[in-house]
């Protein structure tokens, strides 16, 4: 009487595809390109009197999703972090601080005074990062 081997063979490891390997660098590059396009849109809007920093987040999310071709929580986090950084850089470029009537163009001065920004502007940056994360997370 022969018995079959009750131990199953070990599962074989599958080689990852290039699409799986490049998802995070592509998501990062797409988010940066989208954020740059969003900064350009925000610049055009500010010349017309609109505050459109949220465009940085929306376009960063779409850029991340477009290049990575799929989303997960890591691509959402990548897009949200890039949006926060790019949004604050765009804010310092378009709306610098004025000290005693003199324009303060220093990035370090701007970063040190982020807590002094109005709550509305901070909320718009948070909403932009949330939009970027949500758009990049969708599948």
Brief synopsis:
The protein has one domain (24-137). Helices cover 65% and strands 4% of the residues. The protein has 6 helices and 2 strands, in the order ααααββαα.
Give an overview of the whole structure:
- With 139 residues, the protein is mainly alpha-helical.
- The protein has one domain (24-137).
- The chain has six helices and two strands, in the order H-H-H-H-E-E-H-H.
- A two-stranded antiparallel ribbon has the order 1-2.
Identify the notable features of this structure and list them briefly:
single chain, 139 residues, mainly alpha, 6 helices, 2 strands
Largest sheet: 2 strands, antiparallel
Question: What kind of oligomer do you see?
Answer: single chain
Can you count the helices?
A: 6
Q: Looking across the biggest beta sheet, what order are the strands in?
A: 1-2
Number of strands: 2
**Helical percent range?**
55-70%
Strand share of the residues?
under 5%
Class from secondary-structure proportions: mainly alpha
* Shape descriptor: elongated
Strand and helix order: HHHHEEHH
Mean pLDDT level? 91
Gyration radius over CA? 22 Å
How many discrete structural domains? 1
Uncertain ranges = none
Determine the N-to-C terminus distance.
53 Å
Break the fold down into its secondary structure elements and pairings.
Blueprint: H1 18-21, H2 23-47, H3 54-68, H4 73-94, E1 97-99, E2 102-104, H5 107-112, H6 119-137
Antiparallel strand pairs: 1-2
Helix pairs in contact: 2-3, 2-4, 3-4, 3-6, 4-6
């Amino acid at each position: 009487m022969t018995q079959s081997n009750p131990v199953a063979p070990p599962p074989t490891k599958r080689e990852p595809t290039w699409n799986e390997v490049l998802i995070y660098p592509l998501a990062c590059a797409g988010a940066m390109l989208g954020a740059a396009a969003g900064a350009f849109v925000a610049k055009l809007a500010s010349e017309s009197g609109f505050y459109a920093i949220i465009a940085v987040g929306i376009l960063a999310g779409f850029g991340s999703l477009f290049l990575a071709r799929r989303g997960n929580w890591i691509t959402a986090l990548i897009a949200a972090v890039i949006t926060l950084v790019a949004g604050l850089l765009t804010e310092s470029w378009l709306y610098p601080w004025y000290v005693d009537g003199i324009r303060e163009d220093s990035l370090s001065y701007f970063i040190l005074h982020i807590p002094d920004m109005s709550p509305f502007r901070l909320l718009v940056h948070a909403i932009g990062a949330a939009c970027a994360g949500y758009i990049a997370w969708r599948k």
